[in-house]
Write a structure and sequence with these properties.
mainly alpha; two-stranded antiparallel ribbon; 14 helices; 62% helix; Rab_GAP_TBC_domain
């Protein structure tokens, strides 16, 4: 098989993948049974949309009810803040209120404000659509992205079904961004970050939110994903020094048994605690808040 045949084969495979996402779940869509696990409606689904392998409780958990009541009170305060976002009073209160937690129902508005998503969108009108077109023609990452979308957050209602609306959005955002930011391209950890953003945003907002988090000097997350992973390497080195200073016996024990930090802390830093998804949400919010105040 010569180079021309390989390029033709690659283009055909890319077009086939894009067509599957474009078609979604309409009648006649090709979806293997193993790709589309079923679930019972009456299994417990938490307030964030994640499905748990247990039955719905017969009574309301008192602690959960208390948390919801506290969040309702916070929601009133946040609604007032969002209406008066640029006032000095809001900037004074922002630190403590983000630290306590942004109400889940208002995360979309709050995240977009903290990251200035609307401003960036106005500056790049039509760019996202252009990147999607380029991705369909030239993407070299479509196959890997397709594989990662198929396994990302499959326990969540948005991503449970193969080629669901949110799976389509996740594929579109990742393939488009790989074309837009050629320095980073696509790295597997990016699917977790984009997946969480899409739980609260539409496609284009999630695209620009991810771009801001990766490239704005206040956040500079690109170093976690670019070739060589320079920021990840630096974080692992910091972790080792901190562990040696504050928990020297544990560090010595790990070293004795050849337990390198990368074995257990890789997913803490590389994908921002993504396997504990609400840790990722809180880490993102704290980073947005700190950088917003600088």
């Amino acid at each position: 098989m010569n180079e021309g045949d390989l390029l033709k084969r690659s283009a055909e495979e890319r077009e086939k993948i894009f067509k599957r996402y474009e078609r979604g779940r309409e009648e006649g869509a090709e979806i293997d049974p193993w790709e589309d696990p079923g679930f019972e409606v009456y299994h417990a689904t938490d307030r964030y949309g994640f499905i748990h392998d247990k039955r719905l409780p017969s009574k309301v958990d008192p602690q959960e009810a208390k948390k919801l009541q506290i969040e309702l009170e916070r929601q009133k305060k946040w609604l007032k803040m969002l209406k008066n976002w640029d006032t000095p009073n809001v900037k004074e209160k922002l630190h403590s209120r983000v630290y306590k937690g942004i109400p889940n129902s208002l995360r979309t508005q709050a995240w977009c404000r903290l990251l200035n998503v609307e401003k960036v969108k106005r500056e790049h009108v039509g760019k996202y659509a252009d990147m999607m077109k380029l991705a369909r023609q030239y993407s070299t990452d479509a196959r890997q992205i397709d594989s990662d979308v198929n396994r990302q957050f499959r326990e969540h209602l948005h991503y449970r079904e193969r080629y669901s609306i949110k799976q389509q959005s996740l594929f579109n955002v990742l393939t488009a961004y790989a074309m837009y930011n050629s320095e980073v391209g696509y790295c597997q950890g990016m699917s977790g970050l984009a997946g969480v953003l899409l739980m609260y945003m539409d496609e284009e907002d999630a695209f620009w939110a991810m771009h801001i988090l990766l490239t704005d000097s206040k956040y500079a997350m690109h170093g976690l994903y670019k070739e060589g992973f320079p920021k990840l390497t630096r974080f692992l080195a910091h972790h080792d020094r901190i562990l040696g200073k504050f928990l020297p016996k544990l560090k010595k024990h790990f070293d004795k048994h050849g337990v390198d930090a990368i074995l257990y802390s890789l997913k803490w830093f590389f994908v921002c605690f993504v396997e504990r998804v609400w840790s990722l949400v809180r880490v993102l919010e704290m980073r947005m808040k700190i950088c917003c105040l600088l």
